[in-house]
Amino acid sequence: MLARSQIWRPSSRLARLYSTTKAGNGTAVVLFNMGGPSTVDETHDFLLRLFSDRDIIPLPFQEYAAKFIAKRRTPKIAEHYREIGGGSPIRRWSEFQAQEACKLLDKISPQTGPHKPYVAFRYANPLTDYTYERLMEDGITRAVAFSQYPQFSYSTTRSSINELQRCQERIDPEKKVQWSFINRWPTHPGLIKTFVSHIKAQLDQYSEADRSKVVLLFSAHSLPMEIVNQSDPYVAEVSATVYAVMQQLQFSNPYRLVWQSQVGPKPWLGAQTQKTAVQLEKQGAKGAIVVPIAFTSDHIETLHEVDIEMREALKNPEFLKRAESLNGDPMFIEAMADLVKAHLENDTAKLIESGAAIQDYDLYVK
Fold first, then answer.
1. Strand, coil or helix: what is 220?
2. How much of the chain is helix, strand and coil, in % rounded to 5?
3. Which pTM was predicted?
4. Could you confirm whether 362 is annotated as catalytic?
5. Taking all residues of the chain, what is their mean pLDDT, rounded to a whole number?
6. CA distances to 57, 191, 235 from 266, in Å
């Protein structure tokens, strides 16, 4: 384990010089995410990788339990993917977001360009090791790992960084690729602005008399309580995003922070999104808008769990609306590019010296 003094933090001048002189053939912008199966046939392998990861779902006898659960759940989940078009759109959106952000970065930050887009998924193609090999083949020496989990969690962000470290040890033992990390951005102004815009677009569908009475359900992927109880910062950072959005909305509506996608019998973080929506309908609320506050693009949790399953649980499906996901919104793309630009220019650019391990970086630099 490295001592804190061993982590290199360049001065502002040196950081800019490093970005300019060490970029070589450009700066790679690598979007990290959990991912999702792009085709129905990829569903089993996706689930097997997911349930095999102790960082996200710790299970007794993990290897055997993961195989059992993946085999048992594959038919049902595969059918869900068929119902939303034959696979998850998250790869398509992630590749689009990376490409468009890099085009914009070439214009607003030419000194760190050309910027080259990559996507690395934890459980689906393109997997992290595949993307790392591409970086090596392309001769990349400077890369920004850009987490698409705006709110940091041990089970998502750290899991992806841990996987990146394992890939580095296997594929890049000489550490030819110099990494820096954007590992949390829960209150970035551009992110908040985009959420607010999408919420207002849904609120505008209600009459002026009812609009302020509609309940906003900020929904994030839940976590097992055993992870929450390890002081995972995820809950606090999701809450920070929600509060920043409500500030911009001037607290115009009642709102709740709710959680979705629980799996298995163990206790998970609540209250559950679907149960809350059902309760609000019974209580006579004017309506509810689900805001996917921890997701940067559509995937099965929005397209099936919210749009299909939650609406089916209601007496009046029209009671529940959903704010559009961030997807390809130019406002969001601009926010991504702004965040990377600021990161590259910042005098705490968090570059790792050649001898520093990615995992050590994650432990000491937050």
1. strand
2. 50, 15, 35
3. 0.86
4. no
5. 87
6. 10, 33, 18
Rounded Cα–Cα distance for residues 323 and 199 (Å): 5
Of 329, 338, 347, 362, which is the active-site residue? 338
Contact 273/258 with Cβ under 8 angstroms? yes
Element (H, E) at 322: strand 320-322
Identify whether the C-beta of residue 31 lies closer than 8 Å to the C-beta of residue 146. yes
Distance CA 173, CA 170 (A): 6
Q: For tokens 């890099």, name the residue.
A: 102
Residue 293 CA to residue 218 CA, distance in Å, equals 6
153 alpha carbon, distance to own chain's centre: 10
Contact 280, 288 (CB under 8 A): yes
Residues 126 and 330: their CA atoms lie apart, in Å, by: 24
Q: How confident is the model at residue 24 (pLDDT cuts 50, 70, 90)?
A: low
CA distance 33 to 299: 12
CB-CB contact of 57 with 263 (8 Å): yes
Q: Give the C-alpha separation, 221 to 299, whole Å.
A: 12
Q: Is-contact 161 155, C-beta < 8 A?
A: no
Give residue for tokens 């779902």.
57
Instruction: List the structure tokens of 308.
Output: 């299909």
The Cα–Cα gap between 307 and 130 comes to 33
Q: Around Cβ 96, how many Cβ atoms within 10 Å? A: 17
Question: CB of 358 within 8 A of CB of 171?
Answer: no
Question: In angstroms, how far is CA 154 from the centroid of its own chain?
Answer: 13
For Cα atoms 348, 350, 353, give the angle at the middle one, nearest 5 degrees: 125
| Size of the chain, expressed as the number of residues it contains | 366
pLDDT digits (tens, 9 = 90+) for 135-180: 999 999 999 999 999 999 988 899 899 999 999 999 999 999 999 9
Nearest residue to 2 via CA among 352, 347, 366, 349: 352
**Which tokens is 109 given?**
């930050």
